[in-house]
Amino acid sequence: MNNLELKAFLDEKVELYNNPNFIESDPVQIPHLFSQKEDVEIAGFLSATIAWGNRKMIIKNSHRMMDLMGNAPYDFVMSHTENDLERLEFFVHRTFNGHDFQYFIKSLQNIYSNHRGLEAVFYKEQLKNGGLSSIQSAISEFKKIFFEIEHLHRTEKHVSDPMGNSAAKRINMFLRWMVRQDHKGVDLGIWKSISPASLSCPLDVHSGNVARTLGILHRKQNDCKAVAELDIVLREFDKNDPVKYDFALFGLGVFEGFFSL
Known about the structure:
Layout: H1 3-17, H2 37-49, H3 55-68, H4 73-79, H5 82-86, E1 92-93, E2 96-97, H6 98-114, H7 118-128, H8 136-146, H9 169-179, H10 205-214, H11 224-237, H12 245-254
Antiparallel strand pairs: 1-2
Helix pairs in contact: 1-12, 2-9, 7-8, 10-12
């Protein structure tokens, strides 16, 4: 396929997968449980944080996180007591454990109390980059703020840093949920201050393998350099909303087994 044919093919797949049916088997369903902005973004951030491994287990454990917070994440973050945090101690999802969960709550409280919230942190860092450039450096600065209070070193691995050569798949996915405003029912689009044009594809094994099969990604590792390479092509296909193609790449890999054909 030439570039025009490839764009048309991927646009067709975006239309196929970017609809409410996608929510049923995806952790994006967790922030959809809430209506208050802060609840939505905290639920999204926490569920995106544990979004690796078996998808059913991701969703199950994300629901458990919400249950442990009384299904009122913002209120829990801002009003929790030490006894409340003790309830989180035995939570486990792969290498994310109760101590990590407890720190995330404390850090989120710091961000809402002292940095005006999650959106404000990313927006402030994006302004430094001219607003419409890639949001990857803002993710790196966000990590610094997230770990500015006392913490266990092991917890740092649960927030990726593109400047450390990570693809930062989970944060890029969280940002897609919060920023994209296409009103198709999947992405929530509650952050109005950041442009979708600055987003990057949440690159994982599925989207990476499909992108390589299609010839729009050549780097073998799924790292920040691969994200930057893919960004170039996807921005050529749609400069205003490049990350919509995540639906096509992910759907082709997970639901159609495209790369293995």
